[in-house]
TrEMBL record:
Matching SUPFAM superfamilies: Hypothetical protein MTH538
Domain Thoeris protein ThsB TIR-like per the UniProt entry, residue ranges: 8-100
InterPro entries the record matches: ThsB__TIR-like_domain, ThsB_TIR-like_sf
Any Pfam family hit: ThsB_TIR
Name of protein: MTH538 TIR-like domain
UniProt organism field: Chitinophaga sancti
């Protein structure tokens, strides 16, 4: 029986929440519900410290951080914070491009930039050389993610150990 991993999903809420909800509903992984728009607005009103606390509290105890990469994900301040926090905490990181998941409001979007390109390790190596980003099939991105996400996470965990 496969291990149900505890995952923290990092994503651009405003642009990608509908795509992300579809991925979270796959059910192969631990059921962690997306924050509701009302809850997220309350957290945001608390300012940067409240957002940091929310991220830290919700990332705590997670074995893996999956960055769901949409068109503008790499530009987002809090995505950058989550990537840095995950890396510095020794968590496994991986990326999954979600531009080919249909959004009921906006349809598909353009492929975003790899957010790991912006980071370097202490040895000077780009994080994008160490963290795998998966680009699901454009013809059936949802099912490609559904059929492979567990494997991608396990491969990322195994590779991090090596």
């Amino acid at each position: 029986m496969a291990i149900k991993r505890q995952i923290f999903y990092s994503f651009h809420y405003d642009n990608d929440v509908f795509r992300v909800q579809q991925i979270r509903n796959i059910g192969a992984l631990e059921d962690n519900k997306p924050v509701s728009p009302n809850e997220w607005e309350t957290v945001k009103r608390g300012g940067d410290k409240a957002i940091e606390k929310w991220i830290n509290d919700n990332m705590y105890g997670r074995s893996c951080v999956v960055v769901l990469i949409g068109e503008e994900t790499a530009k987002r301040k809090w995505i950058k914070y989550e990537i840095e926090k995950a890396w510095n905490s020794g968590k496994t990181l991986l990326g999954i491009y979600i531009h080919n998941i249909n959004c009921m409001k906006n349809g598909k979007c353009s492929m975003g930039t790899n957010p790991f390109e912006q980071f370097k390790t202490e040895s000077g190596k780009k994080l994008s050389d160490l963290v795998t980003c998966y680009n699901p099939k454009s013809s059936d991105a949802y099912n490609d993610i559904k059929n492979n996400m567990e494997t991608w996470i396990e491969e990322s965990i195994k590779n991090k150990k090596n």
